[in-house]
Amino acid sequence: MEARSPPPTPNQSKDGGVIGELLQTLRLFFSAIFVGIWRFFVPPPKKSVFGEVVLITGAGSGIGRQLAREFARLGSVLVLWDINKTSNTETAKLLQEEFQAKCFCYTVDVGDKSQIQSAAARVKTEVGEVNILINNAGVVSGKKLLDTPDVLVQRTFDVNLLAHFWTVKCFLPSMLKNNHGHIVNIASSTGLVGLNKLTDYSASKFGVVGFTEVLNYEIIFSGYKGVHTTLVCSSYVKTGMFAGCKMRYPWLLPALEVKNMTNRIMQGILTNQYVICIPRLVYFLAYLKVVLPVDAFLEVVKFFGAASFMDTYVGKETNSLIHQNGSS
Ligand SMILES: NC(=O)c1ccc[n+]([C@@H]2O[C@H](COP(=O)([O-])OP(=O)(O)OC[C@H]3O[C@@H](n4cnc5c(N)ncnc54)[C@H](O)[C@@H]3O)[C@@H](O)[C@H]2O)c1
Question: How much is the pTM?
Fold first, then answer.
């Protein structure tokens, strides 16, 4: 575990003139490039999360449940949030049986700010300060914009994006106070490169990308070296969230297994990586998007199936319940 140091004071800019500042910037720029290349070949040592309090939203299934297993294996204390009480309790049971993990379950609709705030207050009293916050819960509507009821658009933003604001506002202050903590936001490759029939989902994930980027700036520019952020942008994972969808060329961009995907996320979290794109091809597509003419990039995304991926979408039973009711 890193040494906890007192809250730092904000960086003071030194008055060395423009040339001095430029030279300093170049020095730091090239050393960051060197470190980046070095780390590509020699990953930094993993930090210990033993005894750390890890809160995971959407812990009842898929990626959330598997991340909970990984942290339980490493001896963390798990705080599990999900809207689905049954599946969340199943996750806790699984972790207790497999790892004798210490788990605390809370039934929370993260699309509701007041539920987040009251659950956070309970966590602080019943468990203690959260050291690692993983914003993972997510929903998908999977329809073209004109076919998407307003209530689903609203819900997608509430759950996939606004929830991050409210959870971070609840748990970041103690992380900053101790200069120790980590916020992990599970976005998506569709937060970098959009897909057909995902206007609300994709826009919410673009929001998570921007939110995490600026949150990271705020933490770093304030001089907190012990508080980290990690943004995860992954392509299609076989969890059932996108049940029915098919990759156009699976040999090129295969559907990911949950275990492989969470192994990559764990590697990134334990080494304080800022951004994790899974697979690496996602970095390349995001790069192409900013350098190619729009029409040329359209041909690239069409080739990868952006126009047709969602045509066979069925989704989860829980999704359709949310869709029918507008809430659950
Ligand atoms: N599956 C993919 O292909 C894929 C790809 C990239 C990113 N992601 C993202 O990964 C995250 C996890 O997705 P998953 O594939 O494990 O899906 P999943 O459906 O298996 O799990 C989502 C969990 O979130 C919970 N949840 C939904 N709404 C909630 C709410 N309002 N409050 C609390 N909990 C709620 C669900 O009950 C479920 O347990 C999501 O943010 C998703 O957008 C998924």
Answer: 0.92
| Contact indicator for 265, 62 with CB cutoff of 8 Å | no
Place of tokens 């899974």: 278
By the 8 A CB rule, do 4 and 178 touch? Answer: yes
CA 262-267-271 angle, to 5 degrees, is 145
CA distances from 43 to 39, 46, 82, 153 (A): 5, 8, 33, 40
Interval between CA 139 and ligand 1 midpoint (Å): 6
Query: Quick one: DSSP state of residue 195?
Result: -
Q: Could you state, in chain order, the average pLDDT of each consecutive group of 10 residues for the chain (328 residues)? A: 50 71 94 91 94 98 98 98 98 97 98 98 98 98 96 98 98 98 98 96 98 98 97 96 91 93 97 96 95 96 92 76 42
Instruction: Point out the residues that are catalytic.
Output: 201
Q: How far is the CA of 186 from the centre of ligand 1 (A)?
A: 9
pLDDT of residue 326: 40
Cα separation, 256 vs 277, whole angstroms = 12
Residue 200: CB within 6 Å of ligand 1?
A: no
Tokens of 56: 């995971």
Question: CB–CB of 57/165 below 8 Å?
Answer: no
For domain 48-238+246-325, the CATH class is: alpha beta
